[in-house]
Specification:
Blueprint lengths: L2 H13 L12 H8 L1 H21 L2 H23 L5 H15 L1
Helix pairs in contact: 1-2, 1-3, 4-5
Length: 103
């Protein structure tokens, strides 16, 4: 899935938290933007397009290759977020859980 889909899902979940819009939450603008209807619509279109491409081109061999790529790319994404987020361990735990779900 394109990152837009992941960011939309994460923002939607974070927006439901009571502290999402708190002035002390340095991510409140990002959460509001990515949880908003326009961004969610873009993500839904990206998801639909990706699924259409998968229907056209996916094979078992390609699926295995994409899973391997995802496993390699996910820690890099976690490292990106950890550079700015002091509680980076939570990111790594969440992304590790995602990897376990798909394999």
């Amino acid at each position: 899935m394109p990152p837009v889909c992941g960011y939309a899902e994460i923002a939607k979940r974070l927006a439901s938290r009571p502290d999402a819009a708190a002035a002390t939450n340095c991510y409140r603008v990002w959460i509001a933007e990515d949880a908003g209807a326009p961004y969610q619509e873009v993500a839904a279109k990206a998801r639909a397009h990706t699924e259409h491409l998968a229907d056209l081109y996916a094979t078992p061999a390609r699926e295995a290759e994409l899973i391997a790529i995802f496993k390699e790319a996910t820690p890099l994404e976690a490292d990106f977020w950890e550079m700015d987020w002091g509680a980076g361990q939570r990111v790594r735990i969440a992304l590790s859980a995602i990897i376990r779900l798909i394999t």
